[in-house]
Amino acid sequence: MFTGIITGVGRIVALHDLGRSLQHGKRLTIEAPAGYLDDVGLGDSIALNGACMTVTTFNPELQQFTIDISAESLDKTCGLDQPGPINLEKALRAHDRLGGHIVSGHVDGVGSVSRFEQVGESWELCVLAPPALAKYLAYKGSITINGVSLTVNKVNDLDEGCEVSINLIPHTLQNTALGSLKAGSRVNLEIDTVARYVERMLSAGLVQKDTA
């Protein structure tokens, strides 16, 4: 489990194919900030742009670690198939503060940035989410974008999906990789876990009534 509070910005520095077919995944080498790997061990979970991955090797001297990502995960996420900056979050420990919201590290869909503009001292980030996620998005609700826990300020239902507006303060841009986004960028989205269970309970009740 995670909180959506980014603990470091790393960089994918190398990718290696794990096989020759499209069914094979890739091995990613990630460069972490200085000291980031001091408490990391083999098998630990680290979220990369919101996708939970397992540390397969690590080199504290080079501040690098590797993860193996399957073809299925590559198909259901974005930003993990090419070199570049990446948001990192270590798994939540039982005694940690829950500064963001409960995040599972499972990407629910890929959205696209429709607008990213400065407004006063902050920035407005607008993301178009797939239609299937629209029912989980609400004003002042939580959403995870590339692993960052954020609050929805506006919701606009469109034919092509659901556009959410997010306010990013300078601190968020300085301490995450969201500052590299631009209109057209693809982003990993995870809906609020509570919204997921509410939707399931309501839909299960409808099914029971229909079959009674």
Describe this structure as you would to a colleague:
The protein is mainly beta and 212 residues long. It has 2 domains: 8-90, Elongation Factor Tu (Ef-tu), domain 3 (Beta Barrel); 109-200, Beta Barrel (Elongation Factor Tu (Ef-tu), domain 3). Helix content is 15%, strand content 42%. The longest helix has 19 residues, at 193-211. The radius of gyration is 18 Å and the shape is globular. The model has no long low-confidence stretch (mean pLDDT 94).
Number of helices: 3
The biggest beta sheet reads: 6 strands, antiparallel, barrel
How does the overall form come out from the CA principal axes? Answer: globular
Q: Which architecture of the largest domain per CATH?
A: Beta Barrel
- Sheet-strand content, in percent, reads 35-45%
Q: Give the helix proportion (percent range).
A: 10-25%
Strands side by side in the biggest sheet: 1-2-5-4-3-6
What is the number of domains? 2
Predict the CATH topology of the largest domain.
Elongation Factor Tu (Ef-tu), domain 3
In the predicted model, the low-confidence regions spanning at least 5 consecutive residues are none
Count of beta strands: 12
Give the helix/strand class: mainly beta
Separation, N- and C-terminal Cα atoms: 37 Å
